[in-house]
Write a structure and sequence with these properties.
Blueprint (H helix, E strand, L loop, with lengths): L1 E6 L8 E6 L2 E5 L23 E5 L5 H4 L2 H7 L5 E3 L1 H24 L8 H8 L2 E3 L5 E4 L2 E10 L7 E7 L2 E5 L24 E5 L10 H17 L4 E4 L5 H14 L8 E3 L2 H9 L8 H8 L10 E3 L3 H9 L4 E4 L8 H9 L6 E4 L8 H6 L8 E4 L2 E4 L3 E4 L8 H11 L3 E5 L3 H9 L5 E3 L6 E3 L15 E2 L18 H8 L7 E3 H9 L4 H12 L7 E3 L6 E4 L5 H5 L5 E6 L6 E10 L3 E5 L9 E3 L3 E7 L9 H16 L4 H7 L8 H8 L6 H13 L4 E5 L9 E4 L3 H7 L11 H12 L5 E6 L6 E5 L2 H19 L3 E3 L5 H11 L4 E3 L4 E3 L4 E10 L1 H15 L2 E5 L2 E2 L10 E4 L9 H12 L5 E7 L2 E6 L2 H7 L1 H11 L2 E4 L5 H11 L4 E3 L4 E3 L4 E8 L3 H15 L2 E6 ...
Parallel strand pairs: 3-4, 4-5, 5-6, 7-23, 10-11, 11-20, 12-15, 12-16, 13-14, 13-15, 16-19, 20-21, 35-36, 39-40, 39-41, 44-45, 48-49, 51-52, 55-56, 58-59, 61-62, 64-65
Antiparallel strand pairs: 1-2, 1-22, 2-3, 7-8, 8-9, 9-10, 17-18, 24-26, 25-26, 27-28, 27-31, 28-29, 29-30, 32-33, 34-35, 37-39, 38-39, 42-45, 43-44, 46-48, 47-48, 50-51, 53-55, 54-55, 57-58, 60-61, 63-64
Helix pairs in contact: 2-4, 3-7, 15-16, 18-21, 20-21, 23-24, 25-26, 27-29, 30-31, 33-35, 36-37, 41-42
């Protein structure tokens, strides 16, 4: 056996070893040197004339694989054997190396070591080698190969080689100690090998206790954050970065350090994602976590950084920890961060990785020894002012562990490599029982096999199948080959997740972009995914069916938005999957008000809509799901189940994505997918759900129902998409719940038709009416929800009803909607029992918790508290009041909690925040003041309520959060605080002690779960805030209370609303423009004090508007119509009758602007001098039927009038016109005349007829332009926005827009997709003939589609067929398959004659 050391002997880097065994040459590793001042490559010239048959890789660090592409270039046919994990990580590491080389080529004119295509070809030669098994490979039939875990990093192995001429163990880099990500090293089971090639990186030292070092690092990070600076941890992207992440998260979970943001950048981020693909190479604990769907390197505490914009945002934000590559500060994002933090005294840079002698990281560590105070980064020398620390988290074995590793193998010879001379010499001294060699680079020697080689124990060498690569034998991968590929893959041990690259390599024998794309395309053709199921969380990864457990296959549902059947017979709703449960169920989160349940069986999952968008933060999930449902309902009502059914083919299966494409919406957007899924679920007579996700873990499959054609015949007419009849909805609602006295508002969403009901007490209403409302919602096909906000006046009324005898309310309440808590200032006296009964009764009536302060609890309490004597003068002269106050102030002003001192009747009255503490703590001082001044000293015995509450909140341990307002009980000298969250009893006891020492009062702590009627989910928001530091923005209740108190005295103030998701307070004033101008400083102060965003509610308050109009309108004018509010124009328009002088009208307009900030437009006023007879005060009112007849007689023949409605309560006739804005001006005189003639109010409904808008556009568009996608109707701007195919000239667009505005009164915006069709134009004669041909009655669209598909199908594949049913156009997306690019015009003419439809090819 001959051994040749090519590189990496007396150095760390460029590891490369060549061995001739069984007359065959092999190479183990081919790395590069980290030190750029030296030649980066091993001396591959030593391999000249050697026939290398195979290459083996121990692990994926650059010093072991960096030169592998060049070695492959020299031996392109030699397979590369490594563990599967190493194979996956090599792809990531070499891609990163490529990026670095390309950057250096640009920045430093440094030539790359190798091109990118060479890396791709090299990866095609990688063969997975099982770990822990003895195998033989075809290239080395006489050699037994054993790969054993080496610790160090994921996928790292030690190799054992046994042949007739000798045995050899190559340790690679090893770590005997178990780490957080990988288990410790296990030597290959070879007894007394001839040679052990052993790493000696730390042969001259012993490691510090790893657990202590981890704790020291975690504490250093916490201290750095507490100082107010960012903490940078540069580390190796592979291995060290993942260890640091896990130890920080673990320390936070255990409460050893506070929670703070952790950002992951650079190569660390990419490696973390790859680790989730190789659970078999990690510790059993991590393997279990990943198999259950928990990703340990992602989650709430960890945020991945995408680009430099994110980095700038991080450094500009709150203190955070940043874990990034490179570990030696030689490149990568760590240099970017370090250059900005190194001169910041509050920042920290903590080194955890090995540092080369010439690296910037090593020079930074010299700061610790005071050998250097400047560092050169990116060519700039910067003074080092940040905190610097070094922590030993080595992934290498130390001297003692290396010696034990060697002793367990008992080798004949030991060759020490991968270390400097000092380390190798020190380690040699620890190996007295072996012959130790210290080879240099290029050294070689032969070891004779003259002794007995023992067989490998407990292992049997198994030949590694040669069919693992290139099994397709040149055949193009087709759908029929999927099963064959699966049969081969399923035989590979432990391979439960496989990548597209691996599948391409197994089938094609090479993996490049074309073959990988082919694999992906073919696998997507199997909607059932019977063999390989896509991994939703990891791109281009698949589960191997038949090997993966159900929990593994379902684990990627976490973080996905699911379509869940909420209850039997109820409507399915979107929900975010939060986790998997062992009972074959998922834990989900719905939008507020949907369901209180959080656990649902797999069988309730109707489909998977897609991943939650990355930009949605945790606190925004609830509002996002609500808005997702709303937008999807709007879109669903514009879609047609009938058209979708006609676009589908019988006996064909479709996924949700394919249905989305057929109906013409996005297959990726969650709104579109939810709308189509809901549409299909509601159309059970047309579609059949053939397979649910829980059956064999596949996708949901949709097919046409068996009797779908009969269902279509029952309702040939297209379902109406016009606005729902609101009266019908209200009638059905009344049938289900009657007219509850506590229902005070019914509000329709103008876009979706959804109905929101506002009850006085929502929690009580849900218990009474939830089931009835669900049934009503199903019947009318709209969402009916209960507003979560209680009515404040009703809350106050009930509070008066339950008020204990002896108490009276002294102020307006403080209302906290989020925690369902109302608080009153009260006076008087009552008993604890009466107060408890009142609170219980209030909760039963409203579902809320009520508290009082200012009241005296207990029969023995005194109604008034006087100052108490604390010191009397023993002797001395009575000084003047001024001298007494001056002396007392000098002695007291520096004491904690001192408020003031004043003189009264030979007494000095002292006030402290906490008099109970001050009385005893400063007893000697009171006597000193009394003796020096001759005055009596008294103390006010009343503690400051606000200070008590603040100290109570501050005393809470980290992890606990105060719920609602603490209750101050003066009689018991106790503060009662309700908290949420979990902590040890020891910490809670410490909090009570701290409070008592600080204030002299008792602190009563009650967990929220101990309150009656409280559920675990009631305070999710509060628990989420528990981790927020005390210097962060106010809690919601406190911010709301502060804003209410500050704004309540201002004229026009109405209320303050809260948007929890965006951390925004929304004050509402009657006239927001005036408030913004007059109260800008006060609004800014709210934001500055509370830390919350402040945004004015900019909608004018209609009741206040009417009040102003009534007050300022000149005498002689009266309003006859509801004011029209134009939000964008800041204008209010009213229609008046009567007469007034022009100067009075102008004065009214001026007053209106001064009071509201808006313009006033008077229509039909005295500016257009009205006839005197038009203002009769006593117009006789016609009967309801007669009034309707008069309206019909007037407008029945008008082309734009389509509906008449009656409101008997308001004596109003509602006229519905296609285009109401145009109708108001066009028929102003007729409307006014009708109002006077009938005595009824005549109003024009403000809603435009959406279908009429679109039809107006269709009439104006040329024939070759077609509307696609969804329409966008901007009601406030009176604008319609549409997307069309084709292209129009600007003049054509302007002409269409002008005509549209004249016809409708609206603006039109046209967007063009740029998709140009090659519609076959004909000459004028042919066009005339075509028009005549299509003038006949067109066939039914389904029959026309069948004819077109049959005739054009012979020319190619019809990929999509869209129908314009209004203009009778069939748009055919045709892909030619026979090389032809044109279709005979005659064929199209015949098709148009036969079907009566125009045919367009796209």
């Amino acid at each position: 056996m001959h051994v040749l050391f090519i590189g990496g002997t007396n150095e760390v880097g460029a590891s490369c070893l060549a061995v001739q065994i069984a007359d065959q040459w092999i190479v183990i590793d081919a790395g590069v040197r980290v030190d750029r001042s030296a030649d980066p490559l091993p001396n591959f010239a030593l391999l000249e004339d050697k026939d290398v048959r195979a290459i083996f890789v121990t692990h994926a660090h650059a010093d072991h694989i960096g030169a592998l592409p060049l070695l492959h270039q020299a031996y392109p046919d030699a397979p590369i054997f490594a563990s599967r994990a190493t194979g996956l990580l090599m792809e990531v590491m070499l891609a990163d190396a490529q990026r670095i080389m390309q950057r250096r080529a640009v920045d430093e004119m440094e030539l790359p070591l190798y091109p990118g295509d060479l890396v791709e070809r090299m990866l095609n030669q990688v063969r997975p080698l099982p770990v822990g098994e003895a195998v033989t490979v075809p290239e080395l039939p006489e050699v037994t190969v054993i790969a054993s875990p080496a610790g160090h990093i994921a996928g790292a192995v030690s190799f054992g080689f046994v042949a007739s001429d000798g045995s050899l163990v190559v340790s690679g880099d090893i770590s005997v100690t178990e780490q957080r990500t990988v288990c410790g090293a296990q030597p290959p089971p070879i007894e007394k090998p001839d040679l052990l090639v052993l790493e000696a990186t730390y042969g001259a030292r012993l490691h510090a206790n790893r657990q202590a070092e981890e704790q020291r690092l975690a504490q250093a990070v916490a201290e750095g954050i507490e100082r107010g600076g960012h903490v940078l941890i540069p580390c190796f992207g592979l291995g060290r970065g993942q260890e640091v992440l896990l130890l920080l998260v673990d320390a936070q979970q255990k409460g050893l350090i506070p929670e703070f943001p952790i950002y992951v950048d650079g190569l660390v981020r990419r490696v973390c994602s790859t680790y989730h693909l190789l659970p078999e190479a990690l510790t059993p604990r991590l393997t279990r976590q990943i198999s259950k769907g928990y990703y340990p390197f992602a989650g709430r505490r960890i945020t991945y950084v995408k680009d430099e914009h994110d980095r700038e945002h991080i450094l500009a934000g709150e203190p955070a920890c940043i874990v990034t590559s490179s570990g030696m500060l030689t490149g990568g994002p760590s240099v970017w961060y370090a250059s900005r933090l190194i001169s910041n005294p509050q920042a920290s840079i903590l080194i955890t990785s090995y540092q080369d002698e010439e690296s910037p990281g090593r020079r930074l560590l010299d700061v610790v020894d005071r050998r250097q105070d400047h560092l050169d980064l990116d060519g700039v020398s910067t003074l080092i002012q940040c905190h610097v620390g070094k922590y030993s988290l080595s992934a290498h074995a130390d001297a003692g562990e290396l010696a034990s590793y060697a002793a367990s193998l008992q080798p004949l010879y030991v060759a020490l490599v991968h270390g400097d001379e000092e380390a190798r010499l020190a380690l040699r001294a620890r190996l007295p029982d072996a012959e130790v060699l210290l080879p240099d680079n290029a050294a070689e020697f032969t070891i004779s096999a003259g002794r007995v080689v023992y067989p490998v124990t407990h292992n049997h060498a198994v030949a590694l199948s040669q069919l693992a690569v290139g099994i397709g034998k040149g055949r193009l991968f087709e759908r029929a080959h999927v099963e064959q590929l699966w049969q081969v893959v399923s035989q590979i041990p432990l391979l439960r997740i496989v990548t597209a690259r691996e599948l391409a390599l197994i089938w094609e024998g090479q993996a490049h972009e074309e073959t990988i794309t082919r694999i992906l395309d073919v696998l997507k053709q199997d909607p059932r995914y019977r063999y390989f199921m896509p991994h939703r969380a990891l791109e281009e990864a698949f589960y191997v069916r038949g090997k993966s457990t159900a929990s593994e296959l379902f684990s990627d549902l976490i973080g996905q938005v699911l379509f869940v059947q909420v209850a039997f017979g109820g409507s399915p709703m979107p929900a975010l999957c939060r986790g998997l449960l062992p009972t074959a169920s998922v834990r989900v989160q719905f939008a507020p008000g949907v369901s209180d349940r959080i656990r649902y069986a797999y069988s309730t999952i109707l489909d998977v809509l897609g991943a939650l968008p990355e930009h949605i933060e945790e606190r925004q999930v609830s509002s996002y799901l609500t808005e997702l449902s709303r937008q999807a309902r709007v879109l669903r009502r514009s879609l047609s189940a009938r058209k979708l059914a006609l676009a589908c083919q019988e006996n064909t299966s479709y996924t949700l994505s394919e249905l989305c494409e057929l109906i013409g919406v996005s297959s990726r957007e969650l709104v579109d997918r939810l709308a189509v899924a809901d549409l299909v679920q509601r159309s059970s007579s047309l579609f059949y759900v053939q397979q649910m996700p829980q059956f064999e873990e596949g996708q949901t499959i949709y097919t046409l129902a068996p009797n779908w054609q009969e269902a279509l015949k029952k309702d040939e007419a297209e379902p109406s998409t016009s606005q729902l009849d609101r009266r019908m909805v209200l009638q059905i609602l009344e049938q289900h719940i009657g007219n509850p006295p506590d229902l005070y508002r019914r509000r329709f969403d103008p876009d979706t038709g959804d109905l929101t009901l506002s009850f006085h007490f929502p929690d009580i209403a849900k218990k009474k009416y939830q089931q009835a409302l669900s049934e009503a919602a199903e019947e009318v096909d709209v969402s009916i929800i209960i507003s979560p906000y209680a009515h404040q006046d009703a809350l106050s009324e009930v509070a008066q009803q339950v008020l204990p005898e002896g108490l009276s309310i002294q102020s307006h309440p403080s209302v906290y909607q989020e925690s369902k808590h109302i608080h009153f200032e009260a006076s008087g006296q009552t008993t604890p029992q009466a107060l408890k009964e009142a609170q219980t009764h209030y909760r039963d009536l409203t579902g809320w918790h009520i508290t009082f302060t200012g009241a005296t609890i207990g029969a023995t309490a005194l109604p008034q508290t006087l100052p108490e004597m604390v010191a009397e003068p023993v002797a001395g002269v009575l000084v003047s009041p001024e001298e007494a106050l001056q002396f007392a102030t000098q002695r007291l002003s520096s004491l904690p909690g001192f408020v003031r001192v004043y003189a009264e009747d030979s007494n000095l009255i002292v006030s402290f925040l906490f008099p109970d503490v001050a009385r005893g703590r400063h007893a000697s001082l009171w006597q000193e003041i009394a003796d020096a001044t001759g005055w009596h000293v008294k103390i006010v015995p009343i503690a400051a309520r606000d200070a008590l509450i603040e100290v109570a909140r501050r005393s809470l341990p980290d992890g606990l959060v105060c719920v609602g307002m603490p209750e101050v009980l003066p009689a018991q000298k106790t503060v009662r605080l309700i908290y949420d969250g979990y902590d040890s009893q020891e910490d809670i006891s410490d909090a009570r002690t701290e409070f008592q020492v600080t204030t002299g009062w008792m602190l009563s702590l009650l967990h929220v779960s101990s309150l009656p009627g409280t559920t675990n989910g009631s305070h999710l928001h509060s628990r989420a805030l528990a981790t927020r530091p005390t210097d962060k923005p106010y809690r919601m209740e406190d911010a709301l209370h502060y804003a209410q108190e500050l704004l309540k005295p201002l004229p026009g103030y109405l209320r303050v609303k809260v948007e929890v998701d965006s951390h925004t307070l929304i004050p509402r004033f009657a006239f927001p423009d005036i408030a913004r101008e007059r109260y800008a400083e006060r609004l800014a102060s709210i934001s500055g004090v509370t830390g919350w965003n402040v945004r004015l509610h900019m909608i004018i308050y209609p009741p206040a508007l009417k009040e102003v109009l009534t007050r300022i309108l000149p005498e002689g004018l009266s309003c006859v119509d509801t004011p029209s509010i134009y939000q964008e124009k800041r204008k209010v328009g009213i229609v008046c009758v009567g007469q007034a002088a022009p100067e009075l009208v102008e004065e009214a307009r001026r007053h209106f602007i001064e009071e509201t900030g808006w313009e006033l437009e008077l229509r039909g006023s005295s500016v257009e001098v009205l006839a005197e007879e038009c203002v009769s005060e006593h117009i006789p009112m016609l009967a309801r039927g007669d009034a309707m007849v008069r309206v019909i007689e007037t407008f029945g023949t008008a082309s734009d009038f389509y509906q008449l409605g009656v409101d008997d309560r308001r004596t109003t006739l509602w006229l519905h016109f296609f285009f109401p804005e145009l109708a108001r001006s066009r028929y102003a005189a007729q409307l006014e005349h009708l109002s006077q003639e009938t005595g009824w109010k005549i109003e024009v409904d403000k809603d435009v007829h959406q279908k009429a808008l679109v039809e107006a556009v269709i009439r104006l568009l040329p024939a070759h332009v077609t509307i696609i996608g969804k329409k966008s109707i901007l009601h406030e701007q009176l604008t319609l926005r549409l997307t069309c195919t084709g292209i129009l000239e600007p003049e054509q667009i302007r002409h269409i827009q002008q005509c549209f505005t004249r016809e409708t009164g609206w603006s039109l915006v046209l967007d063009f997709s740029g998709q140009q069709a090659f519609y076959l134009a004909t000459n004028s004669n042919e066009q005339k003939a075509s028009v005549e041909a299509t003038a006949r009655a067109p066939l039914h669209e389904r029959d026309a589609q069948v004819i077109v598909q049959t005739k054009l199908g012979t020319y190619g594949n019809i990929r999509r067929l869209l129908v314009d049913a209004i203009r009778h156009i069939l748009m055919v997306n045709l892909q030619f398959t026979n090389g032809q690019r044109h279709i005979d015009t005659t064929l199209l003419e015949e098709l148009e004659k036969e079907t009566g439809w125009h045919i367009q090819l796209t």
